[in-house]
Design goal:
The chain is α+β, with helices and mostly antiparallel strands and 564 residues long. The protein has five domains: 88 residues, Beta Barrel (OB fold (Dihydrolipoamide Acetyltransferase, E2P)); 74 residues, Beta Barrel (OB fold (Dihydrolipoamide Acetyltransferase, E2P)), CATH 2.40.50.140; 84 residues, Beta Barrel (OB fold (Dihydrolipoamide Acetyltransferase, E2P)), CATH 2.40.50; 84 residues, Nucleic acid-binding proteins (OB fold (Dihydrolipoamide Acetyltransferase, E2P), Beta Barrel), CATH 2.40.50.140; 105 residues, Beta Barrel (OB fold (Dihydrolipoamide Acetyltransferase, E2P)). It is 19% helix and 38% strand. A five-stranded mixed beta barrel has the order 1-2-3-5-4. Strands 8-7-6-9-10 form a five-stranded antiparallel sheet. Strands 11-12-13-15-14 form a five-stranded mixed β-barrel.
């Protein structure tokens, strides 16, 4: 009915044989898992005799020399902790499995780096040295290469200063077989810049006040980093006042608040300003500086035509050279003021639209020309020094800044003056008469000849009566006649029509006798005639007269005396 005892024993033996076979199979599979060079997970059992004992879930335990752990790691290890280790040898002579934590770490680092490379995840590395073409970087014990072109978005001049710095980097090339890794910091920086730029562009609007950092300064302005995008702040938009260079207001690295003046989304150009944060001071200049009011300011600039005076920050007025002195002829403002001087002036005109204020310095003092006639009445005699001689006359200084002009026609009643220097010298003291005053044009006319009576009124007509013969000297020959010198410097004219044909060869310097035929008091001219003189004489022929003229020291007057 049932199995015999023998049958049962046979089955048990067969079963036992079957269990042993299954164990052998499992053992064989575990041996395959624990091949040299394999990474395995192990649990810490204990630390003793210079080794760390680990349980691999295998019949034998694994060991790692404590030298492969740092002091901090050894202090932190405790039984039950799990570690990833590298199987170096299945079993040693004592039956222990030889493991390596150090090699496992390196393999793990390479695995981590490969995952970072595949995913594009940034890694952190420390610059350890400069090498040809770039930098050597340590990433968790693995040395990688960072090319110079990939260090920054702009060229780095001094690579040595980066040694010792920890950087966020991206793996751009990797060959684990050769152990080569190429890094880039630039791609991360560009990516970050683009993110900032997109965020900044999305928020920008004209009239908005934003914060930025001075990135670069030029002669014409400053570039401001607004966060991934640069804006230009022109020098004219830095201050309402005068500024010669942007470096007077800012330096690279300064953080400032600026106003967006203009924003071109397509070209991604931004114009910025600082002065626009405060009201334009020119909007209220007519209220602050009404015409006729007195102001005080600082001379900030000089030009050939005047001086610019700062009345307040951003508001300047111009004192033209013509408005600096009532009496001085100012050729350059530096003769009166210097940069930095504080001066008083009067507002002459204000134009907010043109941003101009005209100032006058001389208006602070009374105008001496308004009382000039009181000090120098017309017809009065004054004394002064000859300051300047020109072709048309001589300027005589009467007081500081007040000069009068003696016109060349007012130098002599009788003498034909070709140049004022014939009668006056520079620096000479002379008396003159005031002829006229024009305060509006700031002019005084003076006369030298008016100090004596006009001889043409009486003396000359009485001295040179018509019909009287005069012995005169020829001073100049002209096409229309001979100019002759009478006494007292009076000049007479013998017209060509009044000279006999035989006497046309009379030379300059010769003396002749002629008869006065006309005295013109209005035109101040005396006309003489040789013909009239000869015709009036009951003597010998004209030829005889001319022969006598050729004799040395012979004059018409002498000839007439001889014939008489």
């Amino acid at each position: 009915m049932g199995d015999t005892r023998e049958d049962m024993d046979h089955e048990e033996n067969n079963a036992a044989a079957g269990q042993e076979t299954e164990f052998e199979k499992l053992y064989s599979q575990s041996l395959k898992q624990f091949k040299a060079g394999t990474l395995v997970r192990a649990r810490v059992l204990q630390i003793r005799s210079g080794v760390v004992m680990l349980d691999l879930g295998y019949k034998s335990d694994g060991i790692i020399p404590v030298e492969q752990f740092t002091e901090e790691e050894l202090k932190a290890l405790k039984p039950g902790d799990e570690l990833e280790v590298l199987l170096e040898a299945a079993e040693d002579s004592n039956g222990n499995i030889m493991l390596s934590r150090e090699k496992a770490k390196k393999l793990q680092v390479w695995d981590d780096l490969n995952r970072a490379y595949q995913s594009g995840t940034p890694v952190k590395g420390k610059v350890v040295a400069t090498i040809k073409g770039g930098l050597s970087v340590d990433i968790s014990g693995v040395i990688a290469f960072l090319p110079g072109s990939q260090i920054d978005v702009k060229p780095v001049q001094n690579l040595g200063r980066m040694v010792g710095q920890s950087l966020d980097l991206k793996i751009i090339k990797m060959n684990s077989g050769r152990g080569n890794i190429v890094l880039s910091r630039r791609v991360l920086m560009e990516h970050e810049q683009n993110l900032k730029k997109e965020a900044t562009l999305a928020q920008l609007a004209e009239g908005q006040v934003v914060s930025g950092v001075i990135k670069n300064i030029t002669d014409y302005g400053a570039f401001v980093d607004l966060g991934g995008i640069d804006g230009l702040m022109h020098i004219t938009d830095i201050s309402w006042g005068r500024i010669n260079h942007p470096s007077e207001a800012f330096k690279v690295g300064d953080r400032i608040d600026v106003v967006i003046l203009k924003y071109d989304r397509e070209k991604q150009k931004v114009s910025l300003g600082v002065k626009q944060k405060t009201p334009d001071p020119w909007l209220s200049v007519t209220e602050k500086y009404p015409v006729g009011s007195r102001v005080r300011g600082k001379v900030v600039s000089l030009t050939d035509y005047g001086a610019f005076v700062e009345l307040e920050h951003g508001v300047e007025g111009l004192v033209h050279v013509s408005e600096m002195s009532w009496i001085q002829k100012v050729k350059h403002p530096s003769k009166v003021v210097s940069v930095g001087d504080m001066i008083e002036a009067q507002v002459l005109a204000a134009d907010p639209n043109a941003r101009r204020i005209s100032l006058g310095m001389k208006q602070i003092e009374p105008n001496p020309w308004q009382t000039i006639s009181e000090r120098y009445p017309v017809g009065g005699q004054v004394e002064g020094k000859v300051k300047t001689i020109t072709d048309f006359g001589a300027f005589v200084g009467l007081e500081e800044g007040i000069d009068g002009l003696i016109h060349i026609s007012d130098l002599s009643w009788t003498k034909h003056v070709k140049h004022p220097s014939e009668l006056l010298k520079k620096g000479q003291q002379t008396k003159v008469m005031v002829l006229s005053i024009d305060p509006a044009k700031e002019r005084i006319s003076l006369g030298l000849k008016q100090l004596t009576p006009d001889p043409w009124d009486k003396a000359i007509p009485e001295r040179y009566k018509v019909g009287k013969d005069e012995t005169v000297k020829v001073t100049k020959k002209a096409d229309f006649g001979l100019f002759v010198d009478l006494e007292q410097g009076i000049e007479g004219l013998i017209p060509t029509s009044e000279i006999p044909k035989d006497a046309e060869e009379i030379k300059e310097g010769a003396e002749v006798t002629a008869r006065v035929i006309k005295v013109d008091r209005n035109d101040r001219k005396i006309a003489l005639s040789i013909k009239a003189h000869v015709k009036g004489q009951d003597r010998s022929t004209l030829k005889e007269y001319m022969d006598q003229q050729q004799k040395p020291d012979t004059t018409i007057g002498a000839l007439l005396k001889e014939r008489s």
